[in-house]
Amino acid sequence: MADQPDVQRLDDGAVEPRLAHLDAVLAQLEQTPGRTAELALDAVEILTEVYGEALARVIDLAAGSPRVLDRLTDDELLRHLLLLHRIHPDPLDRRVARAVDDLRPQLRTQGAEIALVGVQDEVARISLSASSCGGGGAALRDQVRELVLTFAPELSGVDVVTPAPAPALIPVATLWQRPDRTDEPSTNEGRAAGSLAVGGTT
């Protein structure tokens, strides 16, 4: 059996500029009048549909193996295509949770903590707390929104909120003190005052 020829593979760094170039070419075709441009756009649309169907069949074949599905959806390019064709196997709330999990280690290096509050009515609510104040907060919120929307583009909104401050701790000593006796003298002071009063009357 003859050796298969080497096929050039593209890593994520090589795919991204190609996708950007494709978007630019398609935008230019949409602005170009004439039958040739229409035929080119039709060809792209048909090709996209066929490749989308092929990808959907791959997902169907992998449906019985959660490990394989996880590997497929962990790949950034495949995840993008699955979302593009609306055939991603994970439900919306799980994809949002995975986006938050992916962000957590990176945000911790920037002194921030993130948590998913919930997803309701196609709006994700994310809790974000940062140890520092200033302009960095807005940048972190934008970063969270951008990544969450890449995992769940069908969301109508991403609300990034600041968690409520934790309640202040009550000193243990105050638990042993009756509020209605704070202005009264201590027991020893009361006994001393009573002794003086008795001594004064004898």
How would you concisely characterize the structure shown here?
This protein has seven helices and three strands; from the N terminus they run H-H-H-H-H-E-E-H-E-H. With 202 residues, it is mainly alpha-helical. It folds into two domains: 19-89; 91-165, 2-Layer Sandwich (GMP Synthetase, Chain A, domain 3).
* Oligomeric state of the chains in view: single chain
Rg value: 32 Å
Shape: elongated
Could you say what the CATH architecture of the largest domain is? 2-Layer Sandwich
Largest sheet: 3 strands, mixed
**CATH domain topology of the largest domain:** GMP Synthetase, Chain A, domain 3
CATH top level label of the largest domain: Alpha Beta
Distance between the termini: 125 Å
Question: What order do the helices and strands follow?
Answer: HHHHHEEHEH
Q: Flag low-confidence runs.
A: 192-202
